[in-house]
Amino acid sequence: MAPIVSIRNLTKSYATGFKALKGVDLDIEEGEILALLGPNGAGKTTMISIICGIVTPTSGTVTVGGHDIQQDFRRTRSIIGLVPQELTLDAFETVWNTVSFSRGLHGCKPDPALIERILKDLSLYDKKDTMLRHLSGGMRRRVLIAKALSYEPKVLFLDEPTAGVDVSLRKDMWQLVERLRANGVTIILTTHYIEEAEEIADRIGVINHGEILLVEEKQALMAKLGRKQMTVELAEPLAAIPDTLSPFGLTLSEEGARLVYEFNASGERTGISSLLAALSQAGLRVKDISTEQSSLEDIFVELVGEGK
């Protein structure tokens, strides 16, 4: 099956000479949730803006649903929903009218039942007759999502959708995202909350300095790049690590009661058996052993650091 969004050699340069995107290639599969991670200024919003027809690329091609975004703008824009970072709304309009107008703006027939369902899903229905200027920032962000969903897009871009949103609203949003995915909607989100990407995404993309560093299935990425850490709690504290243990690259805690060993869980040999044997030969008694795997945040920080 062809990807629903296909990006080839996409670049964006400005008159100042700044290159926001540098030959980006990316395929997004239909029905998946792709989390796009990157620091501020990495090129995330620029790429989304180009796909949505807001910004003109310098070179390269983008197709959505098999249609070129520049040659067939109306067709592609009708199947794309965008929830931008900025809270750009008519302050003196009601929630219901704002969402209904968005549906009509995209050439869709009125569907009050659909609008009602969307507002209820986003816990906005009791605010349907409220002017937007009377809503909190979090609730206005929900209205942006409702506007994007009003014309039933096949592809939904969420650009930092939970920025400034409290925990309860954030959980509601992700439950809605799961329901949308179940209905076949393709979702691309950018977020600074890496734990959210780790929780909800099928694939993770990392972008920095206008270049895609990698795109991987979440579990494969964790297995490939995630390192494990084993902590050995000693029965008696050490003043220093014995020379016989130096090949293992151990780290001794400040109080001397724990040794920390990092290893690659996907490697053919972890070295754990050899380490335990070496500890015994060194006359060290082990009180407890625990392991933990590096998080997606650890991997992200490492990748972005390498890309600097």
Automatic annotation (TrEMBL):
Q: Molecular function (GO) terms listed?
A: ATP binding; ATP hydrolysis activity
Say which domain of life the source belongs to.
Answer: Bacteria
Q: Which UniProt keywords apply?
A: ATP-binding, Nucleotide-binding, Transport
Protein species of origin: Shinella kummerowiae
The family classification in the record reads: Belongs to the ABC transporter superfamily.
Where is the organism placed in the taxonomic lineage, from the top?
Answer: Bacteria, Pseudomonadati, Pseudomonadota, Alphaproteobacteria, Hyphomicrobiales
Q: Which PANTHER family match?
A: ABC TRANSPORTER ATP-BINDING PROTEIN
Under the heading InterPro entries, the entry gives: AAA+_ATPase, ABC_transporter-like_ATP-bd, ABC_transporter-like_CS, ABC_transporter_ATP-binding, P-loop_NTPase
For this entry, the protein name equals ATP-binding cassette domain-containing protein
What CDD domains is this protein classified in? Answer: ABC_DR_subfamily_A
Q: Which Pfam families match?
A: ABC_tran
Q: Where is the ABC transporter domain?
A: 5-234
Q: Does the keyword Nucleotide-binding apply?
A: yes
